[in-house]
């Protein structure tokens, strides 16, 4: 049983830190399941709610992926960049200080012969 101390802060954060360290140091490897909530409850002598809070933190940081009825899998051995998560390429560029603008450089009207392949596809223009 791993000893936790209420003097060191919330129990769920202590458990989160222990699991995170195990992921970073390769004890729990990418693509594999971590122990079950019940196993962590026994190891740390805490409630299911405390274990779930710790795991939720690690999911939010991008270390774990939780699938109901399947278990919790390690998806990364390093913390996800939460500042760029779920943002498109343009948003990332703007955040980095880049100025984005659209410029029409040139417009050319092209006409096609009536029997050409392009005319059949697009019409006269």
Provide a descriptive summary of the structure in words.
The protein has five helices and two strands, in the order αααββαα. The longest helix is centred in the N-terminal third of the chain and has 14 residues, at 11-24. The chain is mainly alpha-helical and 125 residues long. 38% of the residues lie in helices and 6% in strands. The chain has helices at 11-24, 37-44, 48-60, 89-95, 117-122; strands at residues 64-67, 71-74. Helix 1 crosses helix 3 and helix 2 crosses helix 3 (48-60). The protein is elongated and about 80 Å long. The mean pLDDT is 85. It has a two-stranded antiparallel sheet with strand order 1-2.
The strand count comes to 2
Run of helices and strands: HHHEEHH
Strand residue percentage: 5-15%
Specify the biggest β-sheet.
Answer: 2 strands, antiparallel
Please give the order of strands in the largest beta sheet.
Answer: 1-2
Kindly report the average pLDDT value: 85
Helicity range: 25-40%
Q: pLDDT under 50 segments (min length 5)?
A: none
Please give the alpha-carbon distance between the first and last residues.
Answer: 76 Å
Classification by helices and strands: mainly alpha
Overall 3D form: elongated
Please give the radius of gyration in angstroms.
26 Å
The tally of helices reads 5
């Amino acid at each position: 049983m791993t000893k936790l101390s209420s003097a060191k802060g919330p129990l769920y954060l202590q458990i989160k830190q222990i699991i995170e360290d195990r992921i970073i140091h390769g004890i729990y490897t990418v693509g594999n399941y971590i122990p079950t909530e019940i196993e962590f409850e026994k190891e740390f002598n805490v409630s299911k709610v405390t274990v779930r809070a710790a795991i939720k933190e690690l999911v939010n940081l991008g270390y774990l992926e939780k699938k109901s009825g399947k278990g919790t899998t390690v998806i990364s051995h390093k913390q996800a960049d939460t500042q760029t998560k779920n943002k498109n390429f343009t948003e990332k560029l703007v955040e980095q200080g880049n100025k984005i603008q659209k410029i029409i450089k040139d417009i050319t009207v092209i006409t096609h012969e009536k029997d050409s392949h392009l005319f059949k596809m697009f019409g006269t223009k």
